[in-house]
Amino acid sequence: MSASPQTQNGPASWLNTWGGYIMAGLGAFLFASKAIWIKLAYEYDIDASTLLTLRLVLATPFFVMGGVLTWLRNRRLGIEGPPPVRTRPDLYAKALAVGALGYWFASYTDFESLTTLSPEFERLIIFTYPLFVILFGALFFGQALRVNALWTFAIAYAGIGLIFVTDLQTHGSAIVAGTLWCMASSVSFALYLLLAKPLIARLGPSLFTSWAMSGAAIATFAHFFLTHSVSDVVLSAPLMWLVLGLAIGATVAPSYLTNFALSRISSQANAVISFINPVFTLGMSVLILRQNATLADLGGTLLVVTGVGLYTWLDQRAKRVQSSSAMG
User: Fold this and answer.
1) pLDDT, tens digit (0-9, with 9 covering 90-100), for 37-75
2) H-assigned helices in 4-89
3) 84, 90, 114, 183: which has the highest count of C-beta atoms within 10 A?
């Protein structure tokens, strides 16, 4: 017997939906705090590679354990996973490589950018990765490109340009290097999302995450030991608390909160809530790092959020119209 509309729309459903909104909002807030943890850690004379390595050492076991527990739970409940992949060992090699791209290279370039960029500027550049997903998807993955909405890209990058010019006048050419590092991070993360999707479909999210994080760990540790020695790492109690906050509070917790939210609300709703991410970062920069929010910061943030938000809204509206036409 199917549930009645009253049951589907009752208090339990209402609480479940609002619980999803709260989790998505909290996840966005914690993700937005990442740059703040990094900037605070840099005050203790630690470099990007070492900080990234320590973050991964603490965070990776949680993701691997989550994947194993999910696999055990599905097996106990008799839930079938994706098709067998024993005859395709190359899928595991691809998962390792894609994980290195998304969890090592994209993270390392992001960490390097924060040696010179302000957290709010870094967050705005990273926030434009959906635009690269759209462009690369159309150029290399055969995905549709909504040309009539490309003007929204100009709005987003006008905001980045406004902050870039203002910071260039204030901080000099160091901003250029930081911006290039951050753009590399945004581009590589967009490629990661495009390359990961078919692998997740074959391996399943838990198995893919375990292998992807393993690939990131291999790349991160190889990079660290090629450029450092263990004796180079000098840890203090305050620094360790910051690394713990970065690994758990800004990496593990928001990842799981976002996944839990997606099980309760639509991906579109989650995407809309994530638009507040740069605003959270700007607010924390002012309150925690005591940075001044200039008119350029406020105006640039508004333009970037508007540009990305408009494209998402137009894209989803076009998909709904297309779906309605197909059903008709």
Assistant:
1) 999 999 999 999 999 999 999 988 888 787 778 777 777
2) 5-8, 11-32, 34-42, 48-77
3) 114
